[in-house]
Amino acid sequence: MTLGEHIMLLRKQKGLSQAALGKAIGTSGDIIGRYERNIMIPSIEVIMKIADTLGVSIDFLVGKTNLELDRNTLKRLEDIATLSDENKSFIFRMIDMALRDLKTGQAYATK
Length: 111
Description:
Blueprint: H1 3-13, H2 18-25, H3 29-36, H4 44-54, H5 58-61, H6 71-81, H7 85-109
Helix pairs in contact: 1-3, 2-3
């Protein structure tokens, strides 16, 4: 999927018109349309504004990852990164345990 396609898909998911997205980032709806049709490529500064407005990471917006991190999830990850190694290790063990239990439950539910 191209950058323009990502912008259009996310914009529509958020219920924004091209004009509304343009206004939010300081440009026009016509320019947003050109980005979506891949006629123009936005600068990195504009990409950052679009990503912030649409509530996704730049990596997701440009198609570098399929992992869509909303602001709350990203904030939580940033908070975890500031913890001591011991506390980070504890949190990751809890996450690993929860994921293991979830996967085990899913495996038994499909039989």
